[in-house]
User: What shape does this take?
Amino acid sequence: MEAFTRHAGVGVPLRRSDVDTDQIIPAVYLKRVTRTGFQDGLFAAWRGDDDFVLNHDAYRNGSVLVAGPDFGTGSSREHAVWALLDYGFRVVISPRFGDIFRGNAGKQGLLAAQCERADVETLWKLLETEPGTEVTVDLAEQTVQAKDLTVAFSIDRYTRWRMLEGLDDIALSLRHAQEIDVFEAHRLSWLPTTTVSQA
Amino acid sequence: MWESRTEELLMGRTLAAKVWDDHVVHRGDGDPTSATPDLLYIDLHLIHEVTSPQAFDGLRLSARGVRRPDLTIATEDHNVPTTDIELPIADEVSRVQLETLRRNCAEFGVRLHSMGDVEQGIVHVVGPQLGLTQPGMTVVCGDSHTSTHGAFGALAFGIGTSEVEHVLATQTLPLRPFKTMAISVRSRDGALPAGVTSKDLILAVIARIGTGGGQGYVLEYRGNVIEQLSMEARMTICNMSIEAGARAGMIAPDATTFDYLAGRPHAPAGPQWEAAMQYWKQLHTDDDATFDAEVEIDADALTPFVTWGTNPGQGLPLSERVPDPEQITDEGERLAVRKALSYMDLQPGTPLREITVDTVFLGSCTNGRIEDLRAAAAVLAGRRVRDGVRMLVVPGSMRVRAQAEAEGLHEVFTAAGAQWRSAGCSMCLGMNPDQLAAGERCASTSNRNFEGRQGKGGRTHLVSPLVAAATAIRGTLSAPADLD
Ligand code: SF4
Assistant: This one.
């Protein structure tokens, strides 16, 4: 996972609340066997609608999604985070996230930034009046800044630290690689391996 | 919980705590809500085609390898057809998943048992049968029914796809301790009443504690009844721990466990066996250890048990009637029962014995082992499956299939008019062509009766192998005692 300190990109106002993971990526896309290429499944049910925000040129290459409350509720599918990342999003801002989604996001390096509802409203207005506005999200400072607006966001300390350090779960465990080596050297001698038949 | 490290030195420990402690690579700070969990070593990682593809892809993306391919084993089970296994697979999604697994295993050097291989089968049947599942081990798989392996006194639980990737890369998992619940099952002489199996027992346990009753817990089954059960019967029980919401189920290893293991391909031998036995023998909950919760089951009162609803907790003794939602005072519960009965197309007050089925499925990681096939064959011998009822017999593994054929069981099944199939998950979840049609009703020895689980619109009654066989003969939910 790449370290995340600060990101600047076009803000996308998604004026919807209760966007569950089925809406982020419908179940039919779960049949795939790859870890990448889920961008075409992102918000699939809405992408056919010309009025959908991502179909406007100014927002098409957005990377900071500003959504209503309860984003990412429902099914635990990690594909929801992959789809957002594959599309190019680096940050999702919402007044409240589904728990599992927020956990999955933190693991994959997608910043789930929780902002006050009023601040989300202000951001929406700003991004709608001036489509294409760049939003800068600073994880060290925990701020979202666009034009002359600067608001704070919250994130749990542990996820913040991991993202700043660029540590995914696996990298974190690998910090204990030496301890794993030591543990392996002392494992009980009869424990089975799958490769060698002892019979 | 067993995170209080100082006390633990003074107090006895549970079986789960002993296995946990012996696998800690790095201690977290013991606070269940804190940032640093324990890092646990994983002794055995089982893999199948459905939950592994993105994990392997993730390894490639981050240029990581499989740390211990020699502690990893894969098998094809969820998608495999159980007839014409030498032909190409018709369903594209199934074919792609199997081909992807084959490619990944070849690339990363993981042992794989493919269709046609004598060791191929359901992942939770294959591990124990090879002797790879042993007491005191940590076993994981991207599959919730990994709890099956707890029957050996292993700490075994299902994980998600990113955790599969984590184990592949590090052979460890960061985890916070679970709570422990003792489920004590006792009877006067330690035996189960005639006609009652471990499947009836676990269905009764789930009906008692509820599908959420085990949440956050490792269940330890104990008591004189558990001590007398065979390994197959113990696996059936631990398998369904997850249906009570638990993360894992465990049973302390004893002479039955050791006898089952002796001589299996991956079991220790010679002096190694002696050393292993020494270690295994201390793997039980100490007398002065305490559980976070305890449940007592009086096994003398048990009778054959079946489900009538759409979750494994909605079950009753076979002698009962379909419940009446209007008699239920709790509103949420009343609505749930109403909804279940409407999906199941059942009238309140109908005796369960009068429910007619179209299909009987004998198989799955719950009841697809040799002992299950033997029990069903004993009931079917010299009898016929009722006209209009189709019965699928799907061994849990090709090894089980071969053993059943060596014992002549396949002849009993085919003579009775049942279909004798190759190994796989099959109609347990209908990812392969073995599915219920909409509106069809099935008596199934599997573990989940969720809406649509065995095919869209299909209706499932969970039963034991004995009830499955008797039901096939009579065409209505029945126990062997109902046969003339
Ligand atoms: S038999 Fe059923 S429950 Fe068991 S692993 Fe296969 S699909 Fe899952």
